[in-house]
Design brief:
Order of helices and strands: EEEHEHHHHEEHEEHEHHHHHEHH
Protein name: PNPLA domain-containing protein
Radius of gyration: 21 Å
CATH class of the domain at 23-201 and 283-340: Alpha Beta
Strand content: 5-15%
Oligomer: single chain
Pfam family, one: Patatin
Structural class: alpha/beta
Number of strands: 10
CATH superfamily of the domain at 23-201 and 283-340: Cytosolic phospholipase A2 catalytic domain
Number of helices: 14
InterPro entries: Acyl_Trfase/lysoPLipase, NTE, PNPLA_dom
CATH topology of the domain at 23-201 and 283-340: Cytosolic phospholipase A2 catalytic domain
GO molecular function: hydrolase activity
CATH architecture of the domain at 23-201 and 283-340: 3-Layer(aba) Sandwich
Keywords: Hydrolase, Lipid degradation, Lipid metabolism
């Protein structure tokens, strides 16, 4: 049985305003595309629908947690100031430790704003979703230090190291619950508004029932020659700059091979492309199943296919996409609120 430190009432009463059902916001994962959550929240608040509880996964946890802590505008200003060069500077290569990046630079930025803020002291209900390594358990972080919970929720496997929380090693929550509708309801929300950052991809993947090698495949060597790495110590700053540049290259929603089929033959996908596409495919299929089994009252799906997963320097575009998608659905939110009242 779920026990929360501060159970939420399903009816919210505000002085001078008619009582209404508690509004919950489920914010999905999606790396830089998650900056669209800023636009979503701002539009909801402006329209008179501020969330009473928030559950977030990965970047959704970061944006939701910062909003709950009253730091959303500070974070938005910082994101809007980012350039490609500044994004690269955030990349701190770690040869060991469970990820290519140490993640300390990003953590320090969050620590500067959040300090020792604890989840149970936030003015609204909040939970960050993470996944336990080994067991695959879906972990709801509803108490303790907010910064640690956020770091665990966005610990992208292979890129960022896992985070130890309460004796468990945790990684990105998108591997277990990409859009945490169920968590938001458990926190007491009567009306659940979910934000999926992969709406462009939902339902796109299918099954190819008959496929095999062709003449081009059979003409290629079994193992392609790759440059030899003489020593790990030689990776250094060069690797850091290279990975940084790779991370901020736009990773579009469509494959390059769809534009020019020759690319698929001439060049294999790079490391960051493989990581991003693999994570996207896994997240999309899990999200499709979870949303079908436990649909929200309103699903907001900003059209973000033109935004790369690591395009943090395009915050203005992401925020605008979130605002536009939410504004289109304001009438649906009003109707849904009446239906659950």
């Amino acid at each position: 049985m779920l026990r929360l430190r501060r159970p939420r009432d399903t009816i919210v009463e505000t002085e001078g305003v008619a009582p209404r059902p508690a509004i919950g916001l489920a914010l999905g994962g999606g790396a830089a595309r998650g900056l669209a959550h800023i636009g979503v929240i701002r539009t909801l608040v402006k329209a008179g629908y501020p969330p009473d509880v928030i559950a977030g996964t990965s970047i959704g946890g970061v944006v939701g947690g910062l909003y709950a802590a009253g730091k959303l505008d500070v974070f938005a200003d910082w994101a809007l100031s980012l350039t490609r060069r500044e994004v690269i500077r955030l990349v701190d290569i770690a040869i060991s430790g469970g990820g290519l990046m140490g993640g300390s630079r990003l953590a320090q930025l969050l620590e500067r704003e959040l300090g020792e803020t604890r989840i149970e002291d936030l003015p609204i209900g909040f939970a960050a979703v993470a996944t336990e390594i080994g067991t695959g358990h879906e972990i709801w972080l509803t108490r303790g230090r907010l910064l640690t919970a956020l770091r665990a929720s966005y610990a992208l496997p292979g890129i960022l190291p896992p985070v130890r929380v309460g004796g468990r090693w945790l990684m990105d929550g998108a591997l277990s619950n990409p859009v945490p509708v169920s968590v938001t309801r458990a926190l007491g929300a009567r009306l659940v508004i979910a934000v999926s950052l992969n709406a462009d991809a939902l339902g796109r993947a299918t099954v190819i029932q008959d496929h095999g090698t062709d003449a081009e495949d059979e003409a290629r060597p079994l193992v392609e020659k790759r440059p030899r790495v003489r020593a790990v110590v030689n990776l250094g700053k060069g690797l850091g700059r290279g990975l940084g540049r790779a991370l901020v290259r736009p990773l579009r929603g469509r494959d390059e091979a769809a534009v020019d089929p020759r690319i698929a033959i001439a060049r294999s996908p790079g490391f960051t492309t493989v990581m991003a596409k693999a994570f996207n495919a896994t997240q999309e299929r899990i999200a499709r199943t979870r949303l079908a089994g436990d649909p929200p009252n309103v699903l907001i799906g900003p059209r973000l296919s033109k935004l790369g997963l690591f395009d943090f320097h395009r915050a203005a575009d992401a925020i605008a996409f979130g605002e536009e998608a939410t504004e289109r659905l304001l009438p649906d939110i009003a109707e849904a609120l009446k239906a659950v009242s």
